[in-house]
Write a structure and sequence with these properties.
This protein is 36% helix and 26% strand. The protein has 333 residues and is of the alpha/beta class. Helix 4 packs parallel to helix 5, helix 5 runs antiparallel to helix 10 and helix 8 crosses helix 10. The chain is globular and about 60 Å long.
Length: 333
């Protein structure tokens, strides 16, 4: 049975039925009043899964043909949650069908693809947004406000390392999408993208980018990204072949800000200010699903037709994709 949302301004079609959808979007989307789930599309082999998801979440239509879903007038917005290498193609088709698009990170594989999509979205007069958790997380927004308190920044370090559940299969020779070079898998695209967004949102485009990757079977299973901002350096580590403490630390002349956990959500932030001898931590909404804040904002953007916020997001996404493009080229990926 479908669940009609009274007054919904976002009539959503979902492209993909993987973990980011099942354990992500569908965990909280029903709590957002302005979003109605209209359709979901996945591959033919996922038909049974689609039927189950439709019944459990009140999704009106299911599709195994993406272009058929795009023909549905009831859908005005598409959430692209397919494998990385398909983001450009799926987003482009949705834009040409006149749909607003929320595309999972990383936006595309190459910055030129994103430039084309932004131009196309402007031509079609549709909104184009990147789904990236940390930019909308309250703790990250508060961290931005507190940044001046630590004075001139000299060192930034970000680590997002987690042993992938698919790495053992990779070592056996079974190449799943997360480690498939032809599908834009790897540590840079899947994990370090959060560290890159963390830096880009605070500091913009660096003067230089270097990526020192551990490469196996043409994919980076882990790597160290160095962003040179001139007056300070940022080191971004991401690994899918090992695990370590995830954190992000910004060190300045007057203190530091430390994200307790990965930069993907900024779950809690500790601070220390030398001039006032203040120490403490802030953590807003600790029990809210990590993806909810961005979709609350996406609904608001669409409802209020906030084109300025769309443009701001696109500018940051372009910086992120420029960093990724340079990093991949320099590492030979």
């Amino acid at each position: 049975m479908s669940k009609k949302v009274e007054g919904a301004v976002m009539k959503l079609g979902i492209a993909g039925a993987g973990m980011i959808v099942i354990q992500g979007l569908l965990e909280f989307v029903h709590d957002i009043k302005g979003i109605e789930l209209v359709g979901i599309c996945a591959t033919k082999r996922s038909e049974e899964k689609l039927k189950k998801l439709s019944e459990e979440h009140g999704i009106t239509y299911t599709f195994t043909d993406y272009e058929e879903m795009l023909k549905l007038d009831e859908i005005d917005t598409v959430y692209v949650a397919v494998n990385n290498h398909l983001h450009y193609e799926f987003t482009r088709k949705a834009i040409l069908a006149g749909k607003h698009v929320i595309c999972e990170k990383p936006f595309t594989v190459h910055v030129d693809e994103l430039k084309e999509l932004i131009a196309l979205a402007e031509q079609q007069q549709v909104m184009l947004l990147e789904a990236i958790t940390n930019q909308y997380y309250p703790n990250y927004i508060e961290l931005k406000k507190q940044l001046d308190r630590i004075g001139n920044v000299h060192v930034v370090s970000c680590n997002y390392s987690q042993y992938s559940s698919r790495f053992d299969a990779f070592k056996r020779g079974e190449i799943l999408p997360a480690f498939n070079a032809d599908m834009a898998g790897g540590a840079l695209m899947d994990l370090n993208v959060y560290n890159i967004h963390f830096n880009a949102g605070l500091f913009g485009m660096p003067k230089d980018v270097q990526y020192y990757a551990n490469i196996d079977k043409r994919v980076d299973t882990s790597g160290v990204l160095v962003l040179d901002y001139g007056t300070f350096k940022s080191v971004c580590i991401a690994a899918k072949d090992c695990a370590g403490p995830s954190q992000a630390v910004i060190e300045g002349e007057n203190g530091y800000l430390e994200v307790e956990g990965s930069a993907s959500v900024c779950a809690a932030v500790a601070y220390s200010y030398r001039d006032t001898h203040e120490e403490g931590r802030f953590n807003s909404h600790p029990d809210v699903h990590r993806m909810k804040f961005e979709f609350v904002e996406f609904e608001r953007i669409l409802r209020e037709q906030d084109w300025k916020r769309v443009e701001e997001g696109q500018k940051e996404s372009l910086i992120v994709m420029e960093i990724i493009t340079q990093a991949r080229e320099k590492a030979g990926l």
